[in-house]
Amino acid sequence: MKYRKKIVIGNWKMNLTVPESTILIQKLKKEMPANIKSEVVVCPTFVDIYSASEELKNSQILVGAQNVAEEEKGAYTGEVSVLSLKGFVDYIIVGHSERRNIFGESDKIVAKKAEIVVRHDMKPVICVGETLHEREDKLSKVVVLSQLEASCKHLTGEEITESLVAYEPVWAIGTGQVCSEAEAEKMAGHIRGLVKSLYGEKVSESVRILYGGSVTGSSAKSFKKSKNIDGLLVGGASLHHQEFAAIVKNFDK
Length: 253
Ligand code: PEP
Prior knowledge:
Blueprint: E1 7-11, H1 18-31, E2 39-43, H2 46-55, E3 61-65, H3 82-85, E4 91-94, H4 97-102, H5 107-119, E5 123-128, H6 132-136, H7 140-151, H8 157-161, E6 164-167, H9 181-199, H10 201-206, E7 208-212, H11 217-223, E8 231-234, H12 241-251
Parallel strand pairs: 1-2, 1-8, 2-3, 3-4, 4-5, 5-6, 6-7, 7-8
Helix pairs in contact: 1-2, 1-12, 5-7, 7-9, 11-12
Bound molecules: phosphoenolpyruvate.
């Protein structure tokens, strides 16, 4: 099996001002255990990307963005281009359920975003996940796989290898209700299976799959053993330096 580097991504959402995030970064740098093998990424708001990337220069923590415009340039008031992010971030989250559900982003838009990110040599973190209703209707697998297939439809095998897929059941986001390791691992297996059927075995063994949804320091431990889960996407707990460092430590190999 191909070696896939573990990764923990913190999504700060719209929770911190620039001075607040500077304080959090300083605390995180001190708290982060040494000799961590996983990649660690924080995703501040756009307005904070530049100062966060300056603060994190020469540290083991990388910077990501929470979103990006699907177009490169032009009359798109209020949007942020991939060109503005280039050089400052390594990862860009696309299709987070809050973008899909609050801002109406379709799979088609997510697919354009994933494509634009990868073509500019950054890594898209493509989020997929079912709602509570869909889960209750036993539609989780169908929903997740159809979101993924549509969201990566412009990507070549090489490009999907550079992309990450985050399985984030919507019912587990910000609710304190963590999906069990067994259930998340099963879905990650289905995701890898879809990638295999679309791009072949070699590609499917390279793509990194993350779980996200109410992860804490203690629940992070249970995902450490998951065969198909290579990373964690963390919302609320990433705002607390000790908790986030505990997640990294408990998930790291
Ligand atoms: C998220 O929004 O991606 C997320 C995983 O949030 P939380 O950890 O707060 O559930």
